[in-house]
Design a protein that fits this description.
The complex is a heterodimer of chains A (166) and B (384). Chain A has 166 residues and is mainly alpha-helical. Helix content of chain A is 76%, strand content 0%. Chain A has one domain. Chain B is mainly alpha-helical. The two termini of chain B are 47 Å apart. Classes of the chains: A mainly alpha (166), B mainly alpha (384). Chains A and B meet through helix 1, helix 2, helix 4, helix 6 and helix 7 of A and helix 3 and helix 14 of B.
């Protein structure tokens, strides 16, 4: 029922938010929708952390955050790729990636870890391909080595992430 | 024979069983720990989400590696050269897979899945391009089949096993099709014979202790045999197939196939209950629905609403009485739910699936926001 409520809330602000239609049905080329999405995603995420810290309805965390994370990341990447000053979104993307990786580490949630890593990789790849030099064979080298890097991270994420965890 | 450590694979089965018993409180936590100590399994098997992530990134990695290789080789000039390149690359990928399994102990980690499918895919397409240039599907299948079968045995992968089964069936099908018009009658019965023989062979294999490590593969094969057997005699398949292949609308022995369509699912359910075979029971239940669809396709009752309401009422009544009967407990089946392993994980997956499946609803933007009683049904499906 909560998912239903969030879907309705999102459609009120003009977004279609079920994860698949999030990409398919929304026209993210307008800045208005992007900022709406950012705000909604931010609100949902903030609500999760607020409710969590107050110990209210903790079992709904996942539902809020699942919507929040996808709306936030998709809007952010849309901003990155569509808007004129898109690169301004890069620090923001880095910020939310870090936030969700931290959350994933704290809650031991593999799902959020993977979601954050995939979106961050997407954004990063887009930024790198803005460089002239990468629109050539270098692209293949980039994919080869970056994927190897991500795989290395995912295989070792336990060691990497729990290092500062004392 | 198996690429993975046999001892660890067997240990995994023991651990799974022990964990299930622990959930049902048949053994204590201390006993469970003792079992885990005696049966160590050192595989690297991450959580399902990490597996998906690793699979995706490995896929991209292997594809870009192929891109680099083909640029370096620069011989995409003709099909044969491309085939040899693919073959070379596929063998290389499979070698990398072997290394990941032997040295890094990957097991169902996403990496080994991706490398297996990509390696097999490019090896097989390389073989086909080199030797048959895709002209003859029969030759391609014959080239692919030994590889698929060997890979299914070596990597105990159910998808590859299923593909191998489909390959055998397709070869048989193409051979029978060569008979010309008489194939119309030979095809259904030949297919049934093949599936039936396959089923009894699989049942025999599943009873042997030495095939226990291939449990998942043989389970899929069992399902496939049952479904293939039914599909070979299903009226819809026969009629539309003979129309598409031979351009004949009339079905010989149509009465036989009508009876087959209706009776076989019920027979499946009956024997599933009698023999306490869950696979048989579930296949039967599913195929009952298929049979109903088949008959609905050719005989319309006229009133769709009436038919749906009636069918729903009958099903609800059937479920109600079955549950009551099962609760009495004088059948080999009970209504008590079995403790599933990794319950938490499944719940989380369920939640994600639900949000994925939720239908999109557009905001009803009218001129008058409060006008009309249009309350978009809330997208409520059976999932809520």
């Amino acid at each position: 029922m909560l998912s239903l409520a969030i879907t309705a809330l999102a459609s009120w602000v003009g977004l279609s938010v079920t994860p698949i239609s999030l990409l398919r049905d929304n026209d993210f080329s307008g800045d208005r929708l992007i900022f709406t999405g950012l705000l909604l995603g931010f609100l949902l995420t903030a609500a999760t952390f607020y409710l969590n810290s107050r110990n209210i309805k903790k079992h709904f965390d996942f539902t809020y955050l699942n919507f929040g994370v996808h709306i936030l990341f998709v809007s952010c990447i849309a901003g990155l790729t569509v808007l004129e000053m898109g690169w301004l979104f890069a620090p923001f993307l880095a910020l939310i990636t870090a936030a969700f990786v931290m959350y994933a580490r704290r809650e031991q949630s593999f799902y959020f870890l993977i979601v954050a890593v995939v979106y961050a990789y997407w954004g990063l790849s887009y930024l790198i391909f803005q460089l002239e030099a990468f629109q050539s064979v270098l692209a293949l080298y980039y994919f080869f080595f970056s994927c190897a890097g991500v795989i290395w991270f995912l295989v070792r994420y336990k060691k990497i992430l729990s290092l500062p965890h004392k | 024979m198996i690429a993975y450590s046999n001892q660890w694979l067997a240990a995994l089965q023991v651990r799974r069983q022990a964990a299930q018993w622990n959930k049902k409180e048949l053994i204590t936590d201390a006993q469970l720990r003792a079992i885990f100590d005696v049966y160590p399994a050192g595989f690297y098997t991450p959580n399902v989400f990490v597996r998906i992530g690793l699979g995706i990134f490995c896929w991209v990695l292997v594809c870009s590696a192929f891109g680099l290789l083909s640029i370096a080789a620069g011989i995409f000039t003709n099909e044969r050269a491309a085939g040899i390149l693919l073959l070379f690359f596929g063998v290389g990928t499979l070698a990398a897979l072997e290394y990941a399994i032997r040295e890094m102990h990957h097991y169902r980690s996403g990496l080994d899945d991706a490398m297996l499918y990509l390696g097999l895919g490019s090896t097989i397409s390389g073989l086909c391009l080199t030797f048959s240039t895709f002209d003859s599907s029969l030759l391609s299948l014959t080239l692919a089949l030994p590889l698929l079968a060997a890979a299914a045995v070596r990597y105990t992968d159910k998808l590859v096993a299923a593909l191998a089964f489909v390959g055998v069936f397709a070869i048989l099908f193409l051979l029978m099709l060569k008979m010309g018009n008489s194939a119309r009658l030979v095809l259904p019965f030949g297919g049934m014979l093949f599936a039936g023989a396959g089923y009894s062979a699989v049942l025999h294999i599943r009873k042997q202790a030495c095939f226990r490590l291939w449990e998942e593969c043989t389970e899929w094969l069992e399902v496939l045999c049952l479904v293939t057997f039914y599909a070979c005699g299903n009226y819809f398949v026969i009629r539309e197939g003979s129309n598409a292949l031979f351009g004949e609308k009339q079905v010989p022995l149509s009465l036989v196939f009508y009876v087959f369509t209706a009776v076989v699912p019920v027979v499946y359910v009956y024997f599933g209950l009698r023999k306490r075979n869950r696979i048989l029971l579930r296949c039967g239940l599913l195929l009952v629905a298929v049979a109903v669809f088949t008959f609905r396709f050719y005989f319309s009752l006229g009133h769709t609403q009436l038919a749906v309401t009636l069918a729903g009422a009958v099903l609800v009544a059937f479920a109600f009485f079955t549950i009551r009967y099962l609760k009495k407990g004088n059948l080999p089946f009970t209504y008590i739910q079995e403790a599933e392993e990794e319950e938490g994980l499944e719940l989380e997956t369920l939640v994600i699936n639900q949000t994925f499946a939720a239908p999109a609803q557009a905001a009803p933007v009218g001129e008058n926001a409060f006008g009309g009683g249009q309350f978009g049904g809330g997208g409520s499906g059976s999932s809520y």
